[in-house]
Amino acid sequence: MHLLILAAVIVLSLILIVLGLPGLWIMVATAVTYNLVVPGEPIGWVTLIAVAVLAFVAELLEFSLTGRYARKYGGSRRAGWGAILGGIVGAMVGIPVPIIGSVIGAFVGSFLGALIAEFTGGSSAADATRVAKGALIGRVVSTVLKIGIGLTIGVWIFISAAK
Fold first, then answer.
1. Confidence at 93, pLDDT banded by 50, 70, 90
2. Which of 34, 56, 104, 114 could form an SS bridge with 70, CB 3.0 to 4.6 Å?
3. Where are the domains of the chain?
């Protein structure tokens, strides 16, 4: 029964990652809780530490790739930070929209953050739009990467618990 509940939480956490919510950290917390509740040591502490490190790396990648792609497409450091901050603000503003609001908000926020940062830095409309497109691509890449890492974490936790 414990394993079935763990599997359900992992699947729900993966859905939360897709929606831009903290599914990785819910998986890590669930694994720690599972380790404390189930008799013995079903999930080793090395695994728990490793998945927590992976979750942290995924979070860093999510934010840094957005800014890095904005700079890759010719943007300034300012545009990179605008994309990162815009993505965070957009995710928060989009939350009232049911189900996918935070995802759409993060994508739009990254685009607008880079666009505004480039415009205020003196770039032309064409250059600012190109940079903002790069920030959007970076946000999509980072989201896909985060989902992949989340899938890896979920499988790792489940296999460790099922031993």
1. confident
2. 114
3. 2-162
